[in-house]
């Protein structure tokens, strides 16, 4: 028994050192990357006179029962600062009046589009063009049961060389396209670009645009603000310079259309279709021995609604973990490809050990500590020291993410907001992290057991509700 | 049972204690640094607002009158305002031209702007050097031409393209001579900035060197350079395009050249390209025929309606729909003649796009 317990200790210790070293290293790489990025960003900004040489973009907006927000979202997306783009809204067999609202508001008329199914999706019932807005089209299709299926229908109708897939409830920065297109202009081998997604809860939205950045009052949403800072500012930014980015958020991603089509578009069977697509792109590009880049810009380009109730949060985290496992399973050739470069040698092992199977170690650790304490095996002073170190490192990583945010985009301008973020960086270590570890464990079990995923309707926060316009 | 951690983790525990101390210190340092950043930013924003308020009228007055530029009383400049002045002056200078630009240059020589630009040019910070280079360009300061020339070859994209722009601003002939051979080499230069630079030099000045550069380049570089060819003089462009369409065998070059066709030169050759092996050449040829095609080209476009590539079918259908000598009835006849469903579908879409029911 003693031997088993002792070897368990070493596993936990190695895991603990590994995960924290990994994150700290990502932090350093991200800090360097952001500094370098910002050095030239201003210059590009100053000189970025739009010209016909910018690459035109097709924006695909999959919408399922988005009646409440679709008009505002589309109006906002039609005002993006970019010289040439088209907007394709995909009505994924909504059971509400999403399609009717679009038809009435934008004067959409049925149009005999010569539709070509380059990537697979459920049958298209009809296409519509706006009589008033030349760059707006709507596709009406049978419900495919997934965002992936709806996105594919939109991709089939895209005319331009770059495709941007955006969630219908996302709030975009007006200059978001201009910012994410930059890697495509700098490096023609770029096939996909992601940007930073931020939490919209607590922000003020008017006419589909973010008017004022704020922080949510809801504790769970507030914790996610710090979580997203960590995930995007050093999680993604740390992997990007190595060309080992494994995920581009489904809320906003820009892709080279032909590469996306060659890869077969989104996989409707994948639960985390955004990650699965990126893994597949890595796999296929490496198989073809083609030079390519999948990259990330740290600019905040998109704001999204975060779940505020425990039920929704649990559902989201279980789904993410299930999707993570499934994405790796669907692309296992990439895991074993000896020529996979940094993706195979660094990113995938890190994700598999610490993100995919990490919850096993973490949950086992909780049980181990509890059992040891109950059995009287635990040396409380030493356990307290390690707990303090774990919490301290957690706080350090969050503090570092807040610093990167202040160094780069300082979106939270008030001291009170900073204080709130620091408080959350401390508080999240007591309860929230343990809870998410348990939910992730449940997601992992679901994947391992091959449980079929059921989509649940999430409750929207009030953050995206429109603030009424002042009279007059 | 205190053996659990104590017996095996003595060294580890000591290490953990030290680690806690290190983590704590690092966290506090990061926190203080973040707060410092915030305080500095707030102070800098306030200072800058005050500065801009006091200098805005001076810039506006100078733009309108050379007398004001030479005689206006200038506020005393604090050390901390100097970079702000440089940035604001560059911002003002970049949106004006002609006499207004000359007035702003006169104003700049009354301030510390040239001296500061010289100082920043010697620093190692890329951002400062870019600002300095931009300033020299806007000042049209010929004394630093050689230093700027060396920076055109700098590995940093922003610095090198800014240097290229500045040299062209100072001496357009000299700049163009340096820059045009580099365009095909420096593919990292953003295309819109290259285009701005060529526009700055003017079509008369760039036509001949661009023509020669395109002619002497290999196929890949030709394709790349042709993206900027629209900026050269129309007659030179037409001659170049005709030559490339007629004599080039590379599909990429033909495609790039077809995009630039504006007149009726070389139509028979363009018509023959509708049967090219490469789909995008067929597509581009179909598109051009929509603008310059005659009655005898209708059958060629009709044949393309059955092409295996969607884009070729689409462009052919659009071209048929845009031919000025075809009326709606003739177009419907063409549609009725089609036996292939893809051909009728694509014609229906193209006709609907131009309002032919």
CATH domain class of the domain at 266-357 in chain B = Mainly Alpha
SS content category of chain A:
alpha/beta
Average predicted local confidence, pLDDT of chain A = 89
Shape label of chain B: extended
CATH topology of the domain at 16-49 and 170-353 and 458-464 in chain A, by name, is Spore Coat Polysaccharide Biosynthesis Protein SpsA, Chain A
Q: What is the 3D shape of chain A?
A: globular
Looking at the overall shape, the CATH architecture of the domain at 16-49 and 170-353 and 458-464 in chain A is Alpha-Beta Complex
Question: Please, how many helices of chain B?
Answer: 20
Structural class by sheet pairing and helices of chain B: mainly alpha
Helix content of chain B: over 70%
Q: How many strands, which pairing sense, and closed or not: the largest β-sheet of chain B?
A: none
Strand content of chain B: under 5%
Mean pLDDT of chain B: 91
Sequence of secondary-structure elements of chain B = HHHHHHHHHHHHHHHHHHHH
How many DSSP H or I helices of chain A?
Answer: 16
- Strand adjacency order, main sheet of chain A: 3-4-5-2-1-6-11-8-12-7
Gap between N and C termini of chain B, in Å? Answer: 89 Å
Series of secondary-structure elements of chain A, N-terminal to C-terminal: HEHEHEEEHEEHHEEEHEHHEHHHHHHH
The CATH H-level homologous superfamily of the domain at 266-357 in chain B = Leucine-rich Repeat Variant
User: Quick one: how many beta strands of chain A?
Assistant: 12
Largest interface: A-B, 53 and 53 residues
